[in-house]
Fold these 2 entries.
Entry 1:
Amino acid sequence: MTFSQLSAKKVSWSIGDTRIVDNISHAFRAGAVTGLLGPNGSGKSSLVRLLSGLNSPASGLVELDGRSIGSLGSRQRARTMAVMDQHHGTSQPTSVRQAVALGRIPHRSLLGGEHVVDRQIVGSVLSALDLTDFADRDLDTLSGGERQRVHIARALVQQPRVLLVDEPTNHLDIKAQFDILAILRQVATQAGSDNFSGTEAPTVVVALHDLNLAARYCDQLILLCEGRVVAAGKVQEVLTPANIRKVYGVDAAVMSHPVTGEFMVALAPLTHSAQTDQAHPVSQQRAATRGSEAAHSASVPAR
Amino acid sequence: MTAVKQVDSSAHYVPPVDHLVRGGFAWRRVLVTSGVLCALVVTVVFTVMIGPAQLSAGEVWASILHHLGLGGFAGGVEISALRDAMVWELRLPRVLTAGAVGAGLALCGVIMQSLTRNPLADPYLLGLSSGASLGAVIVLLFAVGVALPIAAFSGALLALVGSLTLARSMGAVTPVRTILAGLAISQVCSAGVSFIIFWSASGDSYRQVLAWLMGSLGGASWSTVAIAGGALVVIGVPLMVSGNILDAFTFGEASAHSLGIRVEAWRWGLLIAVAVLTGSLVSVSGAIGFVGIIIPHAVRLLVGTGHRLLLPLSAACGAVFLMWCDTLARTIFDPREIPVGVITAAVGAPLFAFVLYRTKAGEA
Ligand SMILES: Nc1ncnc2c1ncn2[C@@H]1O[C@H](COP(=O)(O)OP(=O)(O)O)[C@@H](O)[C@H]1O
Ligand SMILES: [Mg+2]
């Protein structure tokens, strides 16, 4: 297996006195899709912002190609890594082609204009993501799924080796969710193609909510809770009923899909007996956190 | 969509030729650009020939060519010293000041709208115009021994510093906080202006103050050309190269960062450059409204939202627009002159409505 260009080393980040990201270390795998899972507020977006260099860690280090991301020039960073954040609206009427072409900005000088090569790359990514027919439409006229494809296309024309994506499937219908993640998978597994610089396999990191989407499309998972890594590794190792119950406070059963035979998770609210058997584990943890920081971190398996 | 095509298979995809040339729009841009440049030349040539004083076109150009040391091309037209001064000391500097102010305001409007991602943003957003007005009113009414432009420029800069300080005191300086702080400072300065006028203005001085508040080019001279034109060349021209940067801000600051832009440095650098340029323009003309809002929208309708073309074309259109508006202001109620701000509002408001209508139609 190949470890990629991107790694987090004991990264922490706080707002005021609140730890939002707590001592996270992970070497992201190249040629693979790594899913970031965790409930709302668990720190997925914050981690993505740290990995992208948008925020600087309070302690620890994010490394890209063996260098601290803060020490890389902005343009150099943007040629290596593309980020698709959670929110992106614009007040200006913007065509699909224009929105996608923005991804070429890191590849030109301050005054440089669009070259034939830029247009070729934009054209080929548009066609790869089935957007050619929409190229001259205004972004506002697209469906949610089409619009997300546009934002992915913008990240792809940056020709990055590392792609960070924050909750790309929000508000999309089921088919569109599958489509988006299928695209991200293809990106991760297309080492050495023309759409990417260098011959190394790209690294894709995606924050997700849906456990079954994660199970189906990710190679590696990181499960976050209150800014800490609860579990990380292969899908089956991370998505255990115990982990899911601990982090999300719901009952889970893992099984094979009746038709495809793939690994899947079935979820249900905690049953009454389960609740009395064992108090809600997350609130237990919260109490522990307040009581003693050390006691809590001891209870989380170190990775 | 049918199925996600294999990204792999398209790696060697060669786009069809029409993607590369993109016929319609490219031609349109060339046409619009040449049209605007022609309009700029035509406007300068014609607006200097129009005015309350009955000067023939031959006289006007003889005077100008003579002063430019090109008297040989003037065709032997003789002109009296008085009439020569009317052209060289009044009309030409006024047309040039109008052009520089219009170009600068439109340019600043584009940048403010783009940075704040607010289509209603204008160059005066950070309390600049109210601050300048306060400075100007103090000088006009209290006979303080300071030149009007200096007082107005100082007022604008003090308002800028006040807005930024206020924004900072609220915590992290975000664009929204900056705008709100600007609004607060703007209100305070306006209250000051109203109070001073109410307290001490009368008759003629009132009219003079009002003219300044509405924006007027009546005081144009070669020194206003130097101030407005100088600011335009020193600050405005370098700002025109920020096209790629402003494009990168299309989807907000996080996405600009992802595109390799140093967001903080560019945001503050552009904001302060815009403020200083606007302050210089306001100091010679007062706060002329509408140019900074309307021109960027109109030009976007013509050539789209890409800033590399939008910036210089907006500047050119702003110049053309204000030169014609000021020509109207000088002549329409001859022999009386009205503040050009009245004309830009009268012409600008319907134009704005039209642009809104077209923009909406385009979106539908
Ligand atoms: N800029 C911020 N200011 C205050 N709190 C923040 C900020 N960014 C994140 N947080 C807090 O950090 C926690 C983690 O947020 P986030 O990373 O967005 O979680 P997720 O993406 O997993 O839902 C939340 O409790 C959120 O309220
Ligand atoms: Mg989030």
Entry 2:
Amino acid sequence: MAEPGAPILEVRGLRAGYGAVEVLRGVDLELRAGEVVALLGSNGAGKSTLNNNLSGIYRPFAGSIRFLGEEIAGAPPTRIVEAGLVHVPEGRRVFPDLTVRENLELGSYRRGRAARARNLERVASIFPRLGERARQAAGTLSGGEQQMLAIGRGLMGEPRLLILDEPSLGLSPLLVEEMFALVGRLNADGLCVLLVEQNVVQSLAIAHRAYVLEHGAIALSGPAAELARDPALRRSYLGL
Amino acid sequence: MPSFDILLAGIVNGLAAGAVYVLVAVGLTLIYGVLHIVNFAHGSLLMLAMYATYFLFAKAGVDPYAALPVVAGGAFALGYVLYRGVVGRFAHGKDENILLITLGLSIVIDNLALFLFTGDTQTIDVAHAQRMVEFGPLFLPRAKVIAFAAALAICAALGLWMARSDTGKAIRAVAKERQGARLVGIDVDHVFAVSYGIGIACLGAAACLLMPSFYVSPSSGHAFVLIAFTTVVLGGMGSFPGALAGGFAIGVIESLGGLLLGEQLGQIGISLAFILVLLLRPTGLFGARR
Ligand SMILES: Nc1ncnc2c1ncn2[C@@H]1O[C@H](COP(=O)(O)OP(=O)(O)OP(=O)(O)O)[C@@H](O)[C@H]1O
Ligand SMILES: [Mg+2]
């Protein structure tokens, strides 16, 4: 485990997009050991684009991404997962034809294989529903259950940094509460989390720091408690 | 109406022939199910594997059954390299490209074979494979019994491996969800190439089981590939159990058709079954209802 406060992720001048379209125009962001960092921004601001470039699904145009001191900008996802950066994507992306258990097992395809059995038990204790439905095809799970499975699959890789992209999407209010509580518990156990959420109030309540992404650049950043009181942020995201 | 014993012999012979169709079809359906590639080079690659088996026996005296792991392994390597170097590189996920590439590949291989091996048919004479084995009222050539047992064993082993191993699970995972696969650190291109390689390895195994009782010429892949496509459509594109059921069904239909209608007309039964399935159950016997 890294020293508390040691840098885990350092993003500098990141430019990225799709084809000729630049979506991120120089993003700077960092995350230190033990932190939950919230990433806020309106629809289409580029939050998922940032995540996909961090996890190697897309290659950035320019800039640097250092993860645990190692440069990973443009590296293939195989290497990035191996290093311990695990991304639970928007839209879940579970394997529909595989069973719940097989989905979880593949979460430790590249990393955490040695501790697979122990982690399967751990995930089943975090999400008892997944334990009950171990033999069911993932494609037949409800949306909320699929979201749990996506998170559980991410945890199977023993992440050093977990990126959660809209984990509460499609969850009932009670499950949203549970999801935030879970992020808090995982963080208390030492996990760093980069959290992308539409639930601004709840994200800021749980996060240590936050960034606001606007038009492809960081418009605001700081301790979450301060941002929660920021008048500009309250106006644009909370309609206050 | 032929007697019961003759019908029984027809069915058993059909099952034995069907086992090899199953192997060829399993390769085809695996490649289709995972890569969404209709592999028109399938017949030509089978023919190549049959030549490999032939030369190993004729030039080096290697028994085709002993050669099976070697030919299947070589076929896997060839498939892996072909996918990495040609099919995957130029396909760009477009159906029309894939059609041109696999069809082009088959034309190149066929003509290369014609150039290198001439158009003559070649056979190998594996004495122990011709010996007859007694099964109750039936006598079967050993080659057919071995082909049946080996094809089943290979399919069972492959099925088990696909279900249990991490690579097998990864193959099934990338079939439907490539981005999710990348996110757990699966090297998707590698898994694609492995899938293509396994599909071709099935052909290598089929070639070794076929050669003791069949002949090879540069065009001998075509007969099998037609049957394999029928099998795969019959069983449901991409379905493993479908390829199994389809292959045996085709073998039996062909054999009984030959018995009842004569050798020349026997093949009609296959076409009839094909048309019936297309009419009544267009997704195939085991096809996903999409
Ligand atoms: N695959 C793609 N190809 C082309 N453009 C894309 C692609 N994915 C996203 N975009 C564009 O990039 C911009 C940023 O999208 P992104 O998904 O990163 O936004 P986001 O902040 O995650 O939004 P949301 O809150 O709705 O999830 C949008 O304008 C979007 O249309
Ligand atoms: Mg998004």
